[in-house]
Amino acid sequence: MATQAILMLVAYIVDRIVGDPRRLPHPVVWMGKAIVAVERAIRRFAGTGRQLKLAGMLLPLLLAGGSFAIVWLVLALLARIHPWLAWGAEAWLISTTIAAKGLKDAGMEVYRHLASGRLPEARRSLGMIVGRDTGTLDEPEIVRGTVETVAENIVDAIVSPLFYAAIGGAPLAMAYRAVNTLDSMVGYKNDKYLHLGWASARLDDIANWIPARLTAVLLTLAAFLRRLDAARAWRTVRRDAKLHPSPNSGWPESAVAGALGVRLGGLNMYKGVASFRAYMGDPVHPLRADHIRKAARLMLDVATLFALVCAAALLGLDLLR
Questions:
Q1: pTM, whole model, 2 decimals?
Q2: In the predicted model, what is the mean pLDDT of the chain?
Q3: Are strands 264-270 and 273-280 parallel, antiparallel or unpaired?
Q4: 291-319 burial, b if ≥16 CB within 10 A, otherwise e?
């Protein structure tokens, strides 16, 4: 357990320093290609409606199960060569499931454009990380979109991968990443994916249920440490988290909204189609560029806190044995 605790911390530090270098192949890219290939095969042989819904269960079974099995096998083979080789490979693999640096960099890129008065560039940078239309957004709406994205992805990109790595090492962390990638690619409630993607979307909801709630607690603690309004953060979570259409996204978003004293949610446009999201938080302060920087700091605080919590829990279990 002590070795596993150190492994977790090393993986987190690697992500904070290195992130996801574009020069190196990333497992999520391979997962995306595998999802496209499996989807094509399923659509070739499955019909529509009930058949497609049953076939949709194959996606998480094959992708998440396959990711777990492949990583476990690779690490087992490396361990036969040398234990330290397997240990180093596992640390790197876990680091690829975390995206604290990438999330911070994406948010701060939008912040720097806004701080320099470059509104068109800020819109384009935001468009790289959200699905909504960004071409006509004003500064407050750009800030809202960025803060919402940073807040929501604290769960998917940081807490959940660390949570599953602490339980089952790199194989389980990579299986989680496969589930999350499936949800982002096929977990839509539209005509194309309503039947094929339902199982992937449901499994992603289940996988993130505990981490999302842990994230709200950690955000409240981080707000306290940052001398933000931790009490309002927790009150906002209790009042607004359940209003979000996702069973999990409302927890981090409402916590961040309460801590910063801003209101998130509202009207978004997706390919010209309006979609209203429930409001999170109260507009104590008008949205401004600096809220992106504060949200990024909260995100990094939560990442560090949870990495330390996971390591401490593993060490505690080791002492109890």
A1: 0.92
A2: 91
A3: antiparallel
A4: bbebbbebbbbbbbbbbebbbeebeeeee
Amino acid at 75: L
Q: Which two tokens stand for residue 116?
A: 């320099």
Q: Is residue 298 within 8 Å of residue 95, measured between CB atoms? A: no
Dist. CA 100–CA 321, nearest whole Å: 32
Helices 2-18 + 160-186 axis angle, to 10 = 50
Phi/psi at 276 (5° precision): -100, 130
Number of domains in the chain: 1
Cα–Cα distance measured from residue 43 to residue 94, given in angstroms and rounded to the nearest whole number: 32
Tell me: pLDDT of 187 over 80.
Answer: no
CA distance 225 to 192: 45
The pLDDT tens digits for 126-138 are 999 998 999 999 9
Tell me the residue range of the domain where 212 lies: 2-320
How many Cβ atoms from other residues are within 10 Å of residue 37's Cβ? 10
- What would the pLDDT profile of 221-268 be if each residue is shown by its tens digit? 999 999 999 999 999 999 999 999 999 999 999 999 999 999 999 999
pLDDT class of 32 with cuts at 50, 70, 90: confident
Dig out the tokens for 21 from the structure. 């270098």
